[in-house]
Design goal:
Helix content: 25-40%
Low-confidence stretches: none
CATH topology of the domain at 4-91 and 164-240: Rossmann fold
Oligomer: single chain
Bound molecules: adenosine-5'-diphosphate, magnesium ion
Order of helices and strands: EEEHEEHEHEEHHEHEHEEH
Distance between the termini: 24 Å
CATH architecture of the domain at 4-91 and 164-240: 3-Layer(aba) Sandwich
Length: about 250
């Protein structure tokens, strides 16, 4: 039984056709590498899974049947979390505050609901610990490296106990050493039984952490196969069009 299935998904933005007839199946506990050139439709595809906008046509199937998402909170309730390419963190806040941004823990204090900072800092510390990240809850995001920011954004997805985590180019703008840290975070998510979709341009990342690779070219699927049955050369060919399909 698959965790999530996209069936014949197409998406147009006005006259621009971003996706055409895409089918995708996510199996339990797998890391899927989503690859394609700039403009191939990768971000559009994960945004559809995350409920940012509905497809123009096509269906999203979860384990318990078809779903229609009108906003991200609906996808989140069904166990689908996303980390956007720009991360959407607040630089002037602490790591813990960013984890709980918009999902703050509150407690009763007489007639008032007040923010429970102690609980949030404690839980954030626990989440960073589980991901074996060195990030500390009180650290300011402004002072963090790109890799640590990813750790904060990824920890945030764990709040809802998700089934699927979608990562849009998490290793695009960080140093080599931090890339290794982020790939470790992805392995830890997988070890917790979470399905990960990793969008990346970096062939070594995809070949070191993914179980399967999915390639989009100009909004169409040109390959979906086990990583062991492919090679960086083949994937490069599929991305550029030198290889038609595989
Ligand atoms: N909100 C939008 N409005 C109009 N066009 C969009 C929008 N989002 C994406 N597109 C277009 O859809 C195509 C696919 O974009 P995108 O999914 O961002 O590609 P990728 O993430 O693979 O680089 C591009 O031609 C892009 O310009
Ligand atoms: Mg993109």
């Amino acid at each position: 039984m698959s965790v999530l299935q996209l069936r014949n998904i197409s998406k147009s933005f006005g006259a621009i056709r971003a996706l055409t007839d895409v089918n995708l199946t996510l199996e339990p506990g797998e890391v899927l590498g989503l690859m394609g050139d700039n403009g191939a439709g990768k971000s559009t595809l994960v945004k559809i899974m995350a409920g940012n906008f509905p497809p123009t046509t096509g269906d999203i199937m979860l384990e318990d049947g078809p779903v229609v998402f009108h906003q991200p909170v609906e996808a989140r309730r069904k166990g689908i979390e996303i980390v956007y390419q720009d991360l959407a963190l607040c630089n002037n806040l602490s790591a813990a505050a960013n984890v709980f941004l918009g999902r703050e823990i509150k407690r009763r204090f007489g007639p008032f609901n007040i923010l429970d900072f102690r609980a949030m800092y404690e839980q954030a510390g626990q989440l960073f610990g589980e991901l074996k990240s060195e990030t500390r809850p009180h650290d300011l995001v402004r002072r963090m490296s790109g890799g640590q920011r990813q750790a904060v954004a990824i920890s945030r997805t764990r709040l809802s106990n998700p089934k699927v985590v979608l990562l849009d180019e998490p290793t695009a703008a960080i140093s080599v050493r931090q890339v290794a840290e982020v790939l470790d975070l992805i392995r830890r998510l997988r070890d917790q039984g979470i399905c990960v979709v990793l969008i990346s341009h970096r062939m070594p990342d995809v070949f070191s952490v993914c179980d399967r690779v999915f390639v989009l070219r100009r909004g169409r699927k040109v390959a979906e196969k086990p990583i062991a049955d492919s090679s960086p050369e083949e994937v490069t060919g599929l991305i550029t069009g030198a290889i038609h399909a595989a």
